[in-house]
Amino acid sequence: MRIFSHTCSNTEIVCALGCASMLVGVDADSDYPPEMVAALPKTGRDLDLDIDAVLALTPDLVLTSLTVPGHEQVVGALRAAGLRVLVCDPRSLADVYANILEIADALGVPERGHALVAQMEAAMPAVDAVGPRPKVLVEWWPKPVIAPARQSWVTDIIRRAGGSNPWAQVDAKSLPMEHATAQEAAPDVVVMSWCGVKEANYRSEVVRQREGWDSVPAVAHGRIHAISEAYLGRPGPRLVEGYRRLRGCIAAAGGV
């Protein structure tokens, strides 16, 4: 089977299922595992996908998603071009698992899908917090602050790791807000996971220098951490690494 993957998370799922040899091309942001994807044809970034270039690769199946705003137009264009498309739109960790199983079924390796989900589940045990859970602000973007809300697998992972998302009850995938609004939540931990920015370029002073934030517990106690968006923003196997890093941050803040 010839597979084209339009999103990083789906690329990583295919490789984790042991099916990297099926990939005939990927989007320009798919960078992991490097030894498996570096030499593959890349046909543009998420919203700038070259449909004709994808067609030229003659894939039997295109794996895509709705995780990026605007992806629905790309999905429509892929379908209009006559391509067979499998679309993932995970809102929760359970959805991520379901997508893995769906992809594994489509690739003809259902048993590997179940094994991968079982491995991820075992690696992300739910922490049974005794006292108050530290409040965790995960920032997808710093200005305005954009945080995950109820319809996000990150909210589930924060909970599993022993923390709480102050915006867990907001019925949205993510929530843009003014700095003052985020400040009012008084997060105990701030995690920079800025989309499209390399982790090496995250700067804690961007958070610390916000007006009035010196009284925010996360700032006052030096609990500003960097976790690459690759570990939290890609709904695939590397969420396990995001969980591990979040667990360390939350434990350092007093979480069980």
What does this structure look like?
- By secondary structure, the chain is an alpha/beta fold.
- The chain has 2 domains: 3-123, Rossmann fold; 136-252, Nitrogenase molybdenum iron protein domain (Rossmann fold), CATH 3.40.50.
- The chain is 38% helix and 14% strand.
- It is built from 12 helices and 10 strands.
- The chain has helices at 8-16, 34-37, 51-56, 71-80, 93-106, 110-123, 153-160, 179-184, 205-208, 217-220, 229-232, 239-252, and strands at 3-5, 23-26, 61-65, 85-88, 136-139, 141-142, 145-148, 174-177, 189-192, 224-226.
- The strands form 3 sheets. It has a 4-stranded parallel beta sheet, sandwiched between helices. Strands 5-9-10 form a 3-stranded parallel beta sheet.
- Strand 1, helix 1 (8-16) and strand 2 form a beta-alpha-beta unit.
- The longest helix is centred in the middle third of the chain and has 14 residues, at 93-106.
- The protein is globular.
- The termini are far apart.
- The model has no long low-confidence stretch (mean pLDDT 96).
